[in-house]
Structure formats: structure tokens, C-alpha cells
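Standup notes
- DV: blocked on the single-chain target, sequence here:
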Amino acid sequence: MRGGGGLCPLPPRLDASVVNEPQLIEPVLTAVDVSKRFGGVTALDRVSLGLLPGEVHALVGENGAGKSTLIKVLTGVYAPDDGDIRYRGESVTMRSPRAAWDMGISTTFQEITLVPLMSVARNLYLGNEPRTRWRLLAVNEMNRKATALLRRYGIDIDVRRPVVSFGAGVQQMIAIVRAVSTNARAVILDEPTASLEPREVGQVFGMIKRLRTAGVALLFVSHNLDEVFEISDRITILRDGRCARTSLIADTTKLEVIATMLGRDIAEVRSTGRTSFTRGQEVLDGVVLDAVGLSRRHQLHDVSLSVRAGEVLGLAGLLGSGRSETVKAIFGTQRIDDGSVRVGGKRVRTGSPRSSLAAGTALLPEDRKAEGIVPTMSVRDNIVLMALPQVSRWGFISPGRVDRLVTAFIARLGIKTSGAGQNITQLSGGNQQKALLARLLCIEPRVLLLDEPTRGIDIGAKAEVQALIQQLADQGRGIVLISSELEDVVEGSTRVVVLNRGTVVGELDRDAIDEHKIMELMAAAPSIDAQAIDERADS
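- DV (later): unblocked, structure below
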């Protein structure tokens, strides 16, 4: 049986010797010719996919290809309009994510779904808390179980502490452990490594390998093809809501995957080269941003940087190095204890986003869902949010001006939407990111602070965003670029500043930029003892 495109065959029966339990010889979870429509938009068109026990099955595709919709159908968030979902060979109807969870299908998402103020242990056992015979919460037993469960996966933390007290990497690990803690037969991992350091990625992969050995069926969704090829056994590629291809990882190459995702011939992909922009434009002379001595206890220590017109300054560093804290301090969404910011030679009041906007500085936040989009608003309202003075007259908003402005930016940035009135949450991640960039560009900023502008978006959208960044630099704007992917920093920056523990540990000019040098600086100890400074400040 094949999917809509005829290129996604369902898996054959598996030899019983492959897994630990001989009875698991059929796919654990199967979608058969599944379709899903939202109004006039077909999100999935006769998609077929089967997850075998003891196998890691990768799911890739551009944003808007249908990956998230397929995951939601497989986990009971959406009911398919056509087709069939089978669990261990039997047709099933899952009316809620809880029903899928009880059945043995669990999911982790890129956006961490933990309760921040609850303890780690409570999060791990939320809804399944151990109880005493009087039905009271057995706190000590829960803490012991949680500690043992996390240590099984190499995580040694105090489970009594609230989740919010840990970094994003640890939180993601906790979410993954929670997903596999109920002896799930099928586990869907949606971008599980997006916010993790290399060491933590190794821990996740170790966990995945243990689950594979135990006969669990795993669906691994990722934009990182290096990780896909490292951990996966089989791969399904979606394009425009249809199955474009399913094959063994051993039978394909990254180039073939990229070509299939983009709908191109391999020869065309080879001829276009790498899907990222290159340096080469000369930097203009004028300094448009000058930040001096930015300090914030426990986070930033005398951070100084400057950006010239037409320059892309890359900020590099590991998670927790102070990258995001630096741009937030510059923009004013995070207050500082000391330091100054000048834009175009004029001092800007720190701790005031309004002053930064008035001076011509705009920030694209790291987390587009929590800090960027307004989920209750349309694409139109999200784009025009910062430009209301431009589209108003005598205190009244002009619908005509709004429509002209929004239509122009939707066309300019190639935002794929059924219309400006569509709710922004219905767009793919890449198109949401473009809408946020359109919001910033509405005010014609002189300085753009871009924190992870390509995180969680597909290869095609990533290339478009990178090309847009280069165009903005060519127009004379000053840009600060943060990316967790060193390749993007190397290829996209005219200069790189490296941070470690909230301190600048090095700077590389155009000709000296390469990944090895950046990694060496990341590993370098700060020239000041940041911890000692914080301790003196506390005292």
C-alpha cells in the first residue's frame, strides 16, 4: 500500500528477531492514506507512514509540508478527514491526546510543555502521581522515583526544584524523559534537540538508542539533517502535504533529501550550491550601534560591541553564554546594572524598548511563540502591530493604509498565507518568522537584533531568511545575528564576537572567521572571574 504520491510505501512485516518481543512484528503505529483539511486548505493529502518497533523513523520537510499536522493526527489532537490510523494492527479512533497517551503513544514538542513553577518530580508524574492509601500525594516516593528515572538517562538533578530554575536544555531532557516514562510503544520526538548543547544531544541520542533496543517505535522530527542521518534508520519526506518519498537512510543522501524537500532535481541543487548567503559586501564606515560595558549581575560582565552600517555582527557562544541577554539588554527588554547604548551616535535610555524603537532598533526574539507572535491575532494585525502610528491619522487607524502595507510585506517576504486575515498560528513556523520580520521592517529600523532567526524553520525558508538578512545589510542596516548553528554564523557574519559566561572572550574579523577558531574561543575561560564578581556584588 502506498501514500498519495506513490513514493511512501508502508513498511513490510518485521522479522521477529529484530526486536525483544517476538509478537511485535507489525508496525506499532500506522497512518494509511490520511487526509486533513482546514477550510479550503489541504494540510495532508493521502499520507501513509508506518512506525516499526525498534526503529527510528525520521520525518522531514519544509515548514508547511504537513509534519505538525501529521503528528497531531497521530496523537489525537486532530481527527483525520479521510484515511485510517492503526495501532498495533487495529484501526483506532483517538479522541484526545490523553487517549493516545493511555494507548501508548507519547510526544515531546520543540516548545517545552512543562509546568514551570512545579517541581521536576511533579512534572514527570503529572496526572499519574503516586498516592498514599488515603489518596494523598506520596511526595517522598514520587521524588525517589523521579530521581531514579532521570539517573537512568544520565540526568542528576534535584527533582524537588521547580522546572523554571533549570535551563532550556535540561527542561527539554525532562520533557523527553516524561514522554518515555509510561512504557510507551510509540514515541514522537518533535525537534527534541533544537535547544540542546552537543553534550546534551549525545544524551538524547543515547536515550533514543536504548529505546530502540527495547523495541520502541520512534518518530524523529528534525530540521538538522546531520542528526537525522546519525540517528535514523528510515526517512519520510513530506512536501506540500503529500508523501514525496520514504526510504532507508542507507539508501539516500543528504543532497537527495534536500532536493526532494525543495522539489528540485539534484543537478539543480548542486548548481545552486549551498543554501546560505555569503559574505563579501564591504562594510560602510558609520557606526550605527555602540554598546559599552553592559553588565547585569550573574548574566553579563562588561560586554562591549559595536556595529557599522552594512555589517552583520555574529554573536557566538554556547547556551548560557550571554548571547540573548546581550541583545535584550541592548533593546531594553532586560534591565542592566551598568553600561550604555548609543544608536547613530545618540544615547538611548537603557531598559526602555520604546526608546530603542524610537532610535531605530528592532529585536527579533529567540522564542517566536512566547515572545513574538500574538496568537489571538491575524497575520495582518501581527505584522502591523509596531507600525500603528504610520497607518493612523488623527488617532484613527486607516484600514486602507494597513492593507497596502501588509500586502506589500506579504509579497516582499513571500509569506505563504490564505489571506492577511488568517490567524497567525495557522501558518508554518517559517512563515510566522517571516511575519515577525515584516513587523520589524515596517518601522524601517537602522539596527536589527536577530536572535535565532532561522531556528525551527525548514531549509527553503532558512535560505530565504538568510538572503533577506544579507539584503538588509546591503541596504546599510546594522545587524546583530545570533545562531546556535556555527555554520550560519561563519557564513553570515562580517565579524564575530564570542561570549562565554556573560563575558566577551574574543573577536574575529572577516578573514579570520572559521568554525574551529570560534569553538576554541567558546572553550576559553573568561578573562575575568565572573563568579567572584557576582559574589562580591552579593556581599
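- Follow-up: The radius of gyration is 24 Å.
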